[in-house]
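pls ignore typos typing on phone
XIL + seq
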Amino acid sequence: QDLTPIKDVYQDDFLIGNVVSVEDMQGVRLELLKKHFNAATAGNAMKPDALQRTKGVFTFTDADKLIDKTLAEGLKMHGHTLVWHQQSPAWMNTTEDAGGNTIPLGREEALDNLKTHIKTVVEHFGNKVISWDVVNEAINDNPQTPSDWKASLRQAPWYQAIGADYVEQAFLAAREVLDEHPDWDIRLYYNDYNLDNQNKSKAVYNMVHEINTNYQKNHPGKLLIDGVGMQGHYMVNTNPANVKSSLESFISLGVEVSITELDIQTGSNYQLSEKLAEAQGYLYAQLFKIFREHAANIGRVTIWGLDDGTSWRASTNPLIFDKDLQAKPAYYGVIDPD
Ligand code: XIL
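k done
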């Protein structure tokens, strides 16, 4: 196939990313990755349970190999993720009571675990990454009072152990490391999904606004949270107008925005009719048109998977290449959104 590289189409706009795992870094999959993409996110290799499954024992070997290979192949690397309620070891923020029930860890111990993990990991990878998802998915699914972002926080273990300021504490810990390395150029992101939901995006807006405003009292003109990542796990009937309105609201915060995990569930049971494939292609096109119109404020658009066969939601055919790595209408929507 003599396809136009996606990264060439958007070279003046933003980075074009995809997910990487060790298996992707060879053969035809590596060729496809290198041809179209110039940025990468580790699908699992840099998550808390991969890096510090046991307290105090950091296991960097696999992630290091993956990152070094990715960089050697010419792609930039984004760090994902430092603080999350999934794929994180229980010891970080929970313990057991006398009856063997899981309960939240005390605030001080949990804070210490949070900060140690963040500082060690950020320091270790250093300038090999261009950005970090410092906190992932802290806001709940459909906030009823988005004006009160603290009431909109997910009842996650970190929240239960530390309280609402765990988000700010996480960014402060990461920022502290970066302040010690003025030569590093790394953006700190808050990342979440379903931000086309206007209630959820308002809660995120209010959270980032308040945390950055607080920080600026002592650090005039500086940001604590540099960016908002809109994951973008969409459905074929997602309304692009909602994506646009959230995107514009985040841009108005003065932060960089990235689309961090784009895929569009279409069809089911691994079946995709021609009609739905076209609809999917049209939505990819509409979204990329919006992204391009806001390119000045977008750092990166990352698609969450190389092909439908290896997608985390493979049965819903969400990606731009099919399981045989052939371009779908979605690919053509991406390269020619107008
Ligand atoms: C997914 C990975 O793609 C899967 O391989 C893994 O089994 C589960 O996690 N939001 C995120 C990503 O921030 O880390 C998730 O990735 C998808 C949802």
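The radius of gyration is 20 Å. Residues 43-44, 136, 231, 261, 312 surround XIL (CB under 6 Å). more later
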